[in-house]
User: Which sequence fits this backbone?
């Protein structure tokens, strides 16, 4: 087992480590970090906006660069969480809870360094677990037929929409919108054209990248303008470089040595579940750490463990999210959904066959994730002062960079004006969704999974001769169906239980 | 404003469902789910949930929690912009302006060519949003498009459109 | 996608006009005297892309295109509708070329396109891409006859890629020929089709050899029959349907065409150039790694072959009700 793991990772390293690849990994991580510093720009938006830049590259190099962007933008988002209390995206919200208070206490330096270490260890543990899990899971996944696929997609979307928080209806509507867009084009099962309005541009369906760039990139940008990001004077916590105070104390390390492992494992598990990903991982990591702490009252007031736990968790979750992507071809988050789109652009077929057909690609990618972690730790320790400078650039100057990258990037995908206009429409939609509490990430995920879900549902029904019994007849399908029922029923059961114990308490 | 978006989604859902119903068959000749099966299910669910959102918003309007015409008033009368000041202020006029600038960029890209349309876009945008620093604006409006042009057109070999002036 | 477009950096204003309307058609005597635009109607990484790039690479490496540049451009979209339409609009321009594959036949049948296979100038069929009937290694079917026998008494489900693609056509030609009925389940991609079989959701699949090569090599799958007229060079052990007593032969045309109206001398020039291409070691390596058979048909005979294939397709699609 261990030998196999090392052999696989070694093989991956041999693919990933070439001067060109390492160079582009650095470029990706660097650019990703900068993009992650833009308010509202997390990994999903970062990858979507930067995907067009990778098209001139060889597929392996391109994916390695994208992996660098993935990690880099995650990391960039944390810097803003700590220093200006503005999480780049939902996955780093938990990091603001103790990160910003730490910075206010004048401990911004140690906070940044500790979160770098936490991210590194979280990411590393994630990669080790992925090496152990991916081949096994891929083997297991080859016993997944259409009925199992449909159920697992349903499960993922269900987790995503029910965990969305404030308004579940909005989460469901967001996902359904993604389905609607995914249905344009020729239907795989019947070969009939749907919602194409006779336009040849739409026969092949609506291409997913312009929509993702529009929803995430333009949508976030418009929302930031709406809330007046360009009028605000940015107030950030000061960081003392070149002083002893920049580095964490011995107490910081010894306090959080177990925290980082707990966070990593929790994060990884959350990442592996389709539809949950880094956001839930980091929130779980934080709340569990707080729950088991002897002094929970210090959390939220600048507790180092309160930063280390979510940071280790969200990085481990980013690796974890690669497991369903690589073994099943099902993305677990907005960011991995964009990555999936990129895979397909290179002609790779995600699914259990990927690891069999393209082992070099899979292991190369995993190895590059590990390298990405190392690159990040180097970049972040060496270049923190530089990155912090980026925070001082007035937002007015950031606007044109984002717009031009989105527009030119989209245009150069296919040199299609139709797609470029679609970008703007998606941007408007993304803005409204963001403004009114809908979830663009659910839309993108559903857009990617929509045709898969439909296809597998209809295939199942053809195989079963129209009977829904196929979803409980096959053993794995049965288990999945039960889990789904449990997920739907849980909130009701919980409410009923509370009512019951309440009435018992009264009498 | 929330109400308008909910209403828009509701009407779009109904239109989608009706169009789908008219162009696609729900069940195929041999009694199998047809091409309209899945769109049908999605359409019904969309209508249901968007309708629920509309009802919720209508209730909120009744309780004066949201004001459907506020943004419109803001657009018509600049003085009315934003309730109060500080962090809660919003800038819908700026959003509309950026959207128009992006539309200008996309609309002019084939006419003026990639490079020139980027320069025009940046200049218009920065002039409107950052009036005071004219010199910085001009410099930036030239430097960034040239950098992107070099990146995409020369380095990445993804040629940007050429306009009537040949650049 | 990332099109490497020609950069007509000559002089300003006139350029964009010249690029589209004014490409001077060189006289045939000194063909080729300009840059060739090789259009790929699909995205990078697919079968069509791979073949096109192999051909262009060989033309370049062996200096077969008269020292002129060849610019390769992917114009994906609409299952080939957009790319082939782009080439078709370059009527009688000998500096455009493209590769055919299954969609070259099926797309005009199922969608409203402004072109048909017959509108192009046929150069040559370079490889034929036929289909396997594949079952799991642990299944009870060891020959096509076993399979037919089982299908007579029970409901057999066969998977394939696409609702109106080559998998479907082969499955329904076979069912007609054997007098059985098969339940056909279309999958979106080759990977999904393969997992449908590994997971025991379907009893057999009709697959392209390259899609199942890994599983066959790993001993998980067994090919029962091959849909070409002759056995595959790569899998000499797999009998053809005809040898097994079922009279059907079907393969996809992987070839090269130019826009319609190109001069016959240019057509001849291309035929002789491609005849040199298929002699090279690189080409044969390509055939082998992609489990293709090298079948060569040249010029107008290739055109006839295209229209025959198109008719078979149309007939089958009409029978199964995919088109009216």
Assistant:
């Amino acid at each position: 087992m261990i030998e196999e793991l090392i052999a696989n990772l070694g093989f991956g390293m041999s693919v990933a480590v070439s001067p060109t690849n390492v160079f582009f990994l650095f470029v990706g991580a660097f650019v990703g970090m900068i993009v992650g510093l833009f308010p509202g720009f997390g990994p999903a938006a970062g990858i979507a906006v930067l995907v067009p830049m990778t098209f001139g590259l060889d597929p392996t190099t391109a994916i390695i660069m994208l992996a660098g962007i993935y990690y880099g933008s995650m990391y960039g988002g944390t810097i803003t969480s700590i220093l200006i209390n503005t999480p780049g995206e939902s996955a780093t919200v938990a990091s603001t809870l103790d990160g910003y208070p730490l910075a206010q206490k004048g401990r911004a330096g140690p906070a940044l360094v500790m979160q770098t270490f936490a991210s590194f260890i979280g990411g590393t543990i994630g990669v080790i677990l992925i090496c152990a899990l991916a081949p096994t899971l891929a083997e297991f996944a080859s016993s997944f037929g259409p009925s199992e696929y449909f159920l697992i997609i349903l499960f993922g979307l269900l987790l995503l929409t029910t965990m969305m928080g404030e308004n579940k209806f909005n989460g469901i509507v967001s996902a359904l919108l993604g389905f609607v867009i995914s249905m344009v084009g020729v239907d795989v099962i019947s070969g009939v054209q749907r919602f194409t309005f006779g336009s040849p541009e739409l026969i092949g369906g609506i291409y997913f990248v312009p929509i993702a760039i529009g929803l995430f990139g333009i949508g976030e940008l418009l929302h930031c303008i709406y809330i007046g990001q360009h009028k605000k004077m940015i107030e950030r916590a000061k960081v003392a470089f070149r002083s002893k105070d920049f580095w964490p104390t011995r107490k910081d390390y010894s306090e959080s040595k177990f925290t980082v492992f707990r966070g990593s494992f929790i994060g990884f598990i959350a990442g592996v579940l389709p539809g949950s990903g880094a956001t839930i991982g980091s929130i779980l990591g934080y709340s569990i750490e707080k729950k088991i702490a002897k002094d929970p009252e210090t959390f939220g007031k600048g507790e180092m463990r309160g930063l280390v736990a979510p940071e280790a968790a969200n990085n481990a979750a980013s690796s974890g999210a690669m497991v369903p992507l690589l073994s099943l071809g099902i993305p677990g988050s907005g960011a991995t959904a964009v990555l999936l789109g990129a895979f397909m652009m290179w002609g790779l077929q995600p699914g259990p066959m990927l690891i069999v057909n393209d082992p070099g690609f899979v292991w190369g990618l995993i190895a590059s994730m590990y390298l990405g972690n190392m690159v990040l730790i180097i970049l972040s320790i060496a270049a923190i002062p530089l990155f912090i400078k980026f925070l001082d650039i007035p937002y007015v100057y950031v606007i044109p960079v984002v717009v031009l990258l989105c527009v030119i990037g989209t245009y150069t995908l296919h040199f299609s004006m139709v797609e470029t206009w679609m970008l703007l429409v998606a941007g408007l939609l993304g803005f409204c969704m963001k403004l009114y509490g809908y979830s663009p990430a659910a839309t993108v995920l559903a857009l990617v999974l929509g045709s898969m879900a439909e296809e597998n549902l209809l295939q199942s029904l053809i195989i079963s001769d129209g009977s829904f019994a196929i979803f409980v007849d096959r053993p794995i399908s049965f288990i999945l169906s039960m889990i789904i029922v449990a997920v739907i029923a849980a909130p009701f059961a919980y409410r009923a239980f509370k009512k019951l114990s309440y009435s018992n308490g009264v009498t | 404003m929330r109400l308008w978006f909910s209403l828009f989604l509701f009407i779009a859902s109904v239109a989608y469902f009706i169009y789908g119903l008219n162009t696609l068959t729900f069940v195929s000749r041999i009694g199998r789910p047809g091409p309209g099966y899945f769109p049908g299910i999605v359409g019904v669910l969309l209508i249901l949930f968007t309708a629920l959102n509309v009802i919720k918003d209508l209730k909120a309007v009744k309780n004066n929690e949201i004001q459907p015409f506020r943004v419109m008033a803001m657009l018509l009368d600049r003085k009315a912009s934003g309730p109060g000041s500080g962090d809660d202020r919003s800038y819908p006029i700026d959003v509309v302006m950026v959207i128009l600038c992006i539309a200008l960029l996309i609309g002019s890209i084939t006419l003026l060519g990639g490079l020139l349309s980027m320069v025009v876009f940046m200049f218009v945008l920065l002039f409107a949003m950052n009036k005071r620093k004219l010199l910085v604006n001009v410099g930036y409006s030239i430097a960034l498009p040239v950098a992107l042009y070099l990146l995409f057109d020369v380095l990445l070999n993804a040629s940007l459109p050429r306009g009537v002036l040949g650049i | 996608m990332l099109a490497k477009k020609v950069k007509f950096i000559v002089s300003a204003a006139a350029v964009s006009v010249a690029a589209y309307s004014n490409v001077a058609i060189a006289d045939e005597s000194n063909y080729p005297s300009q840059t060739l635009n090789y259009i790929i109607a699909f995205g990078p990484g697919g079968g069509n892309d791979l073949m096109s790039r192999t051909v262009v690479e060989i033309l370049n490496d062996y200096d077969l295109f008269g020292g002129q540049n060849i610019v390769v451009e992917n114009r994906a979209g609409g299952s080939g509708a957009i790319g082939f339409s782009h080439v078709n609009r370059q009527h009688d321009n000998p500096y455009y070329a493209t590769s055919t594959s299954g969609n070259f036949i099926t797309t005009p049948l199922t969608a409203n396109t402004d072109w048909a296979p017959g509108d192009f100038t046929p150069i040559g069929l370079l490889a034929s891409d036929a289909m396997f009937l594949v079952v799991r290694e642990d299944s009870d079917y060891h020959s096509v006859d076993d399979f037919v026998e089982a299908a007579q008494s029970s409901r057999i489900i066969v998977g394939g890629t696409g609702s109106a693609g080559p998998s479907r056509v082969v499955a329904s030609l076979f069912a007609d020929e054997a007098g059985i009925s098969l339940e056909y389940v279309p999958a979106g991609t080759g990977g999904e089709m393969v997992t449908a079989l590994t997971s025991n959701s379907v009893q057999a699949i009709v697959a392209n050899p390259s899609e199942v090569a890994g599983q066959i090599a790993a001993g998980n799958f067994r090919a029962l029959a091959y849909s070409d007229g002759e056995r595959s060079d790569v899998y000499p052990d797999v009998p053809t349907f005809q040898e097994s007593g079922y009279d059907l032969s079907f393969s996809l045309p992987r070839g090269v065409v130019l826009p319609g109206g190109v001069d016959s001398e240019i057509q001849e020039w291309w035929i002789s150039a491609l005849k040199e291409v298929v002699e090279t070691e690189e080409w044969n390596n390509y055939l082998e790694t992609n489990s293709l058979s090298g079948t060569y048909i040249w010029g107008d005979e290739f055109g006839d072959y295209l229209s025959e294939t198109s008719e078979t397709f149309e007939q089958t699609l009409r029978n199964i009700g995919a088109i009216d």
In short: Helices of chain B lie at 2-23, 37-62, 70-76, 92-112, 114-129, 134-155.
